[in-house]
Fold this protein.
Amino acid sequence: MAFGPLPRLSHVLRLGIKELWSLRRDPAMLVLIAYIFTVAIYAAATAMPGTLNKAAIAIVDEDASPLSARIVASFYPPQFLTPQLITLAEADAGMDAGNYTFVLDIPPDFQRDVLAGRSPAIQLNVDATRMSQAFTGSGYIQQIVSSEVGEFVQRTRGSSSVTPVELVMRNRFNPNLSHEWFGSLMEIINSVTMLSIILTGAALIREREHGTIEHLLVMPVTPAEIMLAKVWSMGLVVLIAEAISLLLIVKGALQVPIEGSLSLFLGVTALHLFSTTSMGILLATIARSMPQFGMLMLLVLLPLEMLSGGSTPRESMPVLVQNLMLFAPTTHFTAAAQAILYRGAGLEIVWPQMLGIVASGSAFFAFALVRFRRTISQMA
């Protein structure tokens, strides 16, 4: 005897528990989940910093003046290693051996020429094979030298002139410009999207390859119940792994402060998981095998992550791309996650993004359900 929707909910619950037991017997997937939410996040936050970090620099001080000593003392960790004072003859050999990324050559009589207003030149040799450090570090060094020379000249000449405007820079939400704060949280956002698509798509393809999907066809369950079971079970796994990673890796190991409400962020993540798990099922209905699913996922996942606003601000993208990406759940999820985790935004700020996630998730679920019903009808 049926009692309204309760038997249907029980079907979804039992099928979801079956998915969890299947995942428990898949050690490769368990290792992947553990790796993505621990090692991968820690490595993304620390291994490849976007800012200059511990760059090797040597200085040839041919002037040996108070100004040159001031310039030498202005380079210090963490942006640079402690400068090594070398001779001009050692500069080329050190660069050839890869010991230095930068060699700064201060010419003789540099201080005298500066005070006389002759605008002397300082030579900066850069190892351009270290591309990221070379590009960022050259600007840092130019700014540091210009600042030290300007302040030295002003103090030496006893100038009391005050610039009409003084710029006071205050960095909000990340005052130390620490890459770990940005890299770790963005890696979690990307990991949620990637892993939820992988788990749901792999679960459906695994059932099709093992023949267990035929067992479901003879049971009194509907395609919608099968899909909902995969959505809630795989979404729950990712949600729990994300919460543990935020507490143990991000807040614990990396010491990254989380400004906003963790419960609100998890709620937004749950909505996003509804969209991405539906997307995983949709891709699994298109692919015929696990290798095809992997290739198809790469074609979909890379644009979703690169154009969602996490790696590059959306304002710098073409207007057409910005408008198209509004149909993707990752765009709204990234905006909401950044607002909550970085700026401490509440529900009154992120509710438009939540509506966008729900709208795109409903569309993906409906499309995936149509494809899934068609796939089952072809197998019956």
